[in-house]
Amino acid sequence: MNKLPQPIGRQREVLCLPPSGHQVVLGTAGSGKTTLAILRSLYLANPTTDHHGKTLLVTFSRCLVSYLESLASFNASNIDVRNYHRFARGYLASRGKMRNFSIADPDVSLNLCKQVLEIARADNPNEALLQKPAELFREEFAWFAKNGITDLNAYLAAKRLGRSGFRVPSSSRGLVFGLYRKYIAARSSANKDYDWEDLALTVCHELLNDSTNRMYKHVVIDEGQDLSPMEIKSLAACIPADGSLTFFGDIAQQIYGRRFSWRSAGLHISEVWRFQENYRNTQSIAALALALARTAAFKADADIVSPKSPSADGPKPLLLNFTSDEREKKVIASLAGNLAKSGTVAVLFTSREQEKDFASWSGIPSTRLHRDLNRWPSGNGVFRGTFHSAKGLEFDSVIIPFVSASNFPPPADVELFGVEEAMTDHARLLYVGITRARTQLVLSYSGTPSSLLPPDPSLYDRKSP
Question: Which parts of 257-351 fold into alpha helices (H)?
Fold first, then answer.
């Protein structure tokens, strides 16, 4: 049974955009993008229309796929709901390009980077760039794959800012790209053909040489801001000439690979549709999100859609101040349990370690949000996860604990990326967390609050339990 609201206003126009070519819809959080992505898929796959065809509804995680499937009933013969990596693996398997266990997981990939970097440091002990953490080199290598950088000349010609603590000058790009080549060789020696970032490169290459009929006539992308340019480009290549690709995204929520843009994916767009209306959050929650969206962390992206405050009323976000972490944990656990009696509650954290700890100190049953969540639970209850795992989801209530100056952003991220980058990244994570809440939002901290929290006291109901 479908649980979707009927489209209203400009949503109706987007639903019935031409069923061929490329379409881009950008919207603020809560503007109905996911609803429209589902309805658009059903419209394009409708067998009673002359434009119908097999449709792929694709997003970035298995968890979000489960959520999409919980919202609507899909005809499996007409619509496939997939995360990008499942689509990519399936296609490459059909081309004989996907062996079992041939993808290096993030830990294996990082360890290979460390091995390559250790050898390079021994060979070049006076090269300052090589003293940077392996995580930054791994991020640079991922950027190559996500943007289709396959040779040094392309890297030299690319406009690449990078992290503030790892901006590679032109004179050093040969060194970094040489390390990338050695990383690929080390990965091959470890019997791994791919890592998760470069699957799309091979998909694109295979599609260019694939003369068989395309499996899908239409592709609809939900939460497209977190797909890389190469992933989007490969999805555009998997449809026939008379097919369509519809991209739904919110640049303000771009937390996987910030600085990527759909504009570099080669889409042919005549008009970008923008949704400013917020149908999810109450006025008070939206006001806090809007205050955050006006900070410096969000000003660099021209494609960010400024949200409008909704009409629905509700309580102000609750900001709780504690004298100790232990007291904070006790109250948060009790609050989560009580809120779950009448609705869905998400407790969100900056890291997996914090999320795992919650399961032990809260003493309450909860569903873990993770990328391989295969079945979305029905009814009320508590969900736990990171900000990343909550992307694209919504809950009646959201609790965000530990938003203290000493924890948010985490010291490890500040040390790795620098203060400016860590603050920008976690401002966007906080925006994602805030906008997941429909009616009730609780933030808490011990000691001093994070400077990322908008300072206007009128935005909160402050308490010290």
Answer: 283-293, 325-339
